[in-house]
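tmp note - Low temperature requirement protein LtrA
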Amino acid sequence: MTQPRSVRPFYRPMRPRRRDEPHRAATPLELFFDLCFVVAVAQAASSLHHDVAEGHLGHAVGSYLMVFFAIWWSWVNFTWFASAYDTDDDVYRITTLVQICGALILAAGVPRAFADGDFSVITYGYVVMRLAAVVHWSRAAVGDPRHRPAARRYAIGVTVVQIGWLLRLLLPAEWGLASFLLLVLADLLVPAVAERPGMTPWHPRHITERYGLFTLIVLGETVLAISMAIQAGLDAGEHDLWSLAAAGAIIVFALWWLYFDRPIEAPDRLPYSLIWGYGHYLVFAAIAAIGAGLGAAVDVDRNLAHISETTAGYAVGIPVAVFLLTIWVLHVRRQQHGVVVVAFPVVALLALLAPLGPAPVYVLAALLVALVTVTVLLRSRDVGPSARVADPA
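out:
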């Protein structure tokens, strides 16, 4: 007799998931959440590209880092919560879709933030996402008695900080940066306070998979940015951009290789989890910024930008260096040894020097290829005989 299929309920108590749950994979809702966030990432990278090409460098960097924080932090909070409490009932799905609506509102406000310094729309979208997260944490407080104090601290902390973000809109413009930094610090302190004592039951392997998937999505957005810049040149009858496109593609391929070169060590203790999770702000922001810098380099090659080749080189070289140093701190230093540990900071330093010479994008591509080559050769040497397959005879 055929067993009836399980029916997803409209509401079920929000019980914690097991930290050692086998085969804990990303759900379709999580993947949909990530894809919707790409809109906001693309808006931020595109605005950075145009500001850099116009020579508004200080404004570009400041606006980008602030906008990207709102994008990244909202994604981080949902990701860690879903790892611990994804019930996949209808109420959970609807609440998450409200968070996605907040991400789309945030994305709509990105151009205004860059052009006029008006962060009101971004703030409204951010608050929508975060208050939906309060609903999630309130459900967790009801359904999980063991972690109820932590869930309550999350719900209260997030609510208080969101009130702060709304009040910030009433402050004079000259207080904008200071109030932003203060509220960022408050946002970052909420998990550090809420998780003590006793961590919520997020799944370490699931977290590393989720971060890896978002890394892939941001890399894909960078590939799209390069493709669009090259397409614009080809549509204008400029057919000498293929070598620059190849160099840009090599840079992106190398970033992918270096991030996923070895299995990522899953965070399992609170201090390291905070460092690892927060450190990825630099990873994601750097990857998206590399796409913007490569777009600016294409504009320089087409004589459309108001910056020099050196400046465009730094628009790529600086985020490449940030990416390498962050990966070095989060992954390489903990898992590898010898020449590879030294090679990452050395190549990061050379990436900062590359724009001082000719053809900086090509030099950066060559440096990253060299670093990938070093990691491959040394990994092969380390594996050595242990990788041999035993002779069945």
